[in-house]
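SECTION: protein entry
WANTED: fold as tokens:
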Amino acid sequence: MTNQPFPPLPPRPTTGRGRWLVPALSLAYLLFSYFLIGFRPEQLVLVGLCNGCYFLSDTTRRFITGFSIFVVFWILYDYMRAFPNYAYRAVDVADIYHAEQRFFGIVSEGKLLTPNEFFLLHHHPALDLLCGIFYLCWVPIPLGFAGYLFFANRRLFFEFSLTFLLVNLIGFTIYYLHPAAPPWFGQQHGLAFTPLTMGSTAGLARFDALVGAGVFQGIYAKNANVFAAMPSLHSAYPVVVLFYALKNKSGFFNLFFLIIMLGIWFAAVYTSHHYVLDVLAGLAVALTGIGLLRLLLVYSPAFRRLLDSFVQATAPASSTASSPA
């Protein structure tokens, strides 16, 4: 028996099993979420976006079908709040602080400081503004790049999206194997563990003050896991973006993504959201995810067929209609 690729999506969004399957999955998601983590307004936004795109047109339906990989990521991330990692393993608060101090300590006025502590004493409004802008890029840049790839190079889009998901799965696993407190936790609460359910804007509060809006206050109030500092997935995402931008031969944008990557790395430390060790761990996780997916592409025919099926399933109706049966 030979493996047949998935059939292309029907030309009309109101035909086929998606007509009832998408609303049914949406209802199941809302009900399950209500009992697991309670009602949250963003759940309705996600459901409305997915259903709206699926039923609006053939193009938007193909788009949201491809982006379902990112929907899976978001749901998994959101559900982590129901299973706080500190409930399963001891949180690393002091050890990681002392390791950071030992490897990357900066002597200032006779004291050995971590880079976070140094920048807490030596910050500047221009850097506060710049780092806030860089930190706001951590999700829009990967999503924007994915949207571009979907229309420009759909096969590479799926390689990128699956790598993004794999990197997150690796990161989430490490969060539960080794819960780690961010630098701001030690600054605000000391080096003894105290359970928290809400994050802190830390150094990004200075950005909010500069722009006169609670941009990051709103973001970190929804943080699903306070003790998930290592690895820094903020630092991992731009690495994945840059790798696939280089593969796509994106020209000037390669330099743009490089600057964004370096900026996010610096901002993560400058604002006390991550240690340098967290950033390096994020880099390692990104390279591991990229490497594993490239190995699957080289050595797994089944994975390559799966990838081809994804590409065909989201192909425009005009391109599939002319294909031989």
Residues 1-5, 320-325 have pLDDT under 50 and may be disordered.
